[in-house]
Amino acid sequence: MVDPTPFLPGLSPVDGKALQVRFDGGLVSSDGGLLLFREIDNRLGLAARLAACVNDGRDPERVTHTAAAILRFRMLGIDCYLWMARA
């Protein structure tokens, strides 16, 4: 049997594993917006560009998470909130 449902190609791998998104779940929704926003950030480097504009006064030897990682996490959190709020 041939599956007629196409998948979304070209997504960046997660932890070295290929990622496939399919649209055959009907009205089921979870984090589809996050995957799309993550891909946009990966391709355009939004978090890295914003981080370059922020003066990070932290001690570099004690930094665990880069400013770009913190901004990316915050942007994805806002995206998730907005995604859930519209439901």
Observed structural traits:
2 strands, mainly alpha, 87 residues, two-stranded antiparallel ribbon, 3 helices
Write down the overall mean pLDDT: 81
Class from secondary-structure proportions: mainly alpha
* Strand tally: 2
The radius of gyration is: 17 Å
Which strand order spans the largest sheet, edge to edge or round the barrel? Answer: 1-2
Helix content: 40-55%
Shape label: globular
Name the beta content range.
under 5%
Which stretches are low in confidence, meaning pLDDT under 50 for 5 or more residues running? Answer: none
Largest sheet, strands/sense/barrel = 2 strands, antiparallel
By DSSP (H or I, 4+ residues per run), the number of helices equals 3
How far apart are the termini? Answer: 35 Å
Strand-and-helix sequence, N→C?
EEHHH
Describe the structure.
By secondary structure, the protein is mainly alpha-helical. The chain has a domain at 30-56 and 63-87. The chain contains 3 helices and 2 strands. The chain has helices spanning 32-44, 46-52, 67-85, and strands spanning 7-8, 21-22. It has a two-stranded antiparallel sheet. α1 (32-44) runs antiparallel to α3 and α2 (46-52) crosses α3 (67-85). The longest helix has 19 residues, at 67-85. The radius of gyration is 17 Å and the shape is globular.
